Amino acid sequence: MTSIPRPVAMLLIALVVLLALFPSCGGLVFPAKHAFLMQKLAGIMILAMMAMSLDLLVGVTGLVSLGHAAFFGLGGYALAILSPEYEAANIWIVLPAALAIVAAAALLVGFLSIRTSGIYFIMVTLAFGQMGYYLFNDSRAAGGSDGLSIMETPAIEIAGRTLLKLADSDSFYYLVLALFVGTYALLRMVLNSPFGQVVRAIGVNENRVRGLGFDPVRYKLAAFTLGCTLAGLAGFLAAAQYGFVNPTMLSWHHSGEALMMVILGGMGTLFGPAIGAFVFELARFGFESTTDHWQLLMGGLVVTIVLVLPRGLAGLLLDLARRGGKQP
Known about the structure:
Blueprint: H1 6-29, H2 34-61, H3 68-82, H4 91-113, H5 118-137, E1 148-149, E2 155-158, E3 161-165, H6 169-192, H7 194-204, H8 206-211, H9 216-242, E4 244-245, H10 252-265, H11 271-290, H12 294-308, H13 312-326
Helix pairs in contact: 1-2, 1-6, 2-6, 2-9, 2-10, 2-11, 3-4, 3-5, 3-9, 4-9, 6-7, 7-9, 10-11, 10-13, 11-12, 11-13
């Protein structure tokens, strides 16, 4: 994966530093809405993790999935089902178990769908996503259309001692921030590896990769499983944040929104979809606060950015950085 120009890298680091400082300094700027904005920023970082995981499929491997939200929702449902009813679940136990469940489901769905391509892959993943939606929507054990409540937020425990309670807003915020940065670092490390180079080549020309002796199906299945598992991690955090899960988490509409974040930010860049998630969610928050017809404004924003910036916001930043580097 190509390196990020220094000005863009410094900008991204500055944004992460601002996110890290917000719990302690944000109250000075937004005293009345500090708690609300902290929750909002944590929620956006969770969605940014989902967008980055989808970018591995769409922007890198060339797999456009409309079933990505099914794995996001499955991660949330796994937490809700595995959590004890009246005590905090130990995150060291429930998180690996939830990710294992999501990874197994992703491996199965990927095995059945990865040999298709183009519109056929889109439709197959959409079908699997809707199957997951109706499975939980019609299941009494999963709470049906009402969903499930998580009575106690998970905690980090070692040897019976509670080290960190995620019910504490600051603790949860910093955990999400750490996993947000960790998700980006993991995906970037993967894409810089020999495996990542093959996956990226598959997205450019699958037939040529096959001609070089690699099996594209195996690589695409591995990338699909990794991306969906990271979406499950985001869903796990979303369920922990809101203490509630319902079938809408698995809806294809949620997948569509994640796809718009990827397109807005810039496909194949990893950091672009994260920026796209922030722009998308902050714009939605602003539009919802001003008009009942906010969907029209959101649609106009998405169309405008796509037409004016076909490579997304990340493409704009990269172009500006390169132009600046050429100036004497």
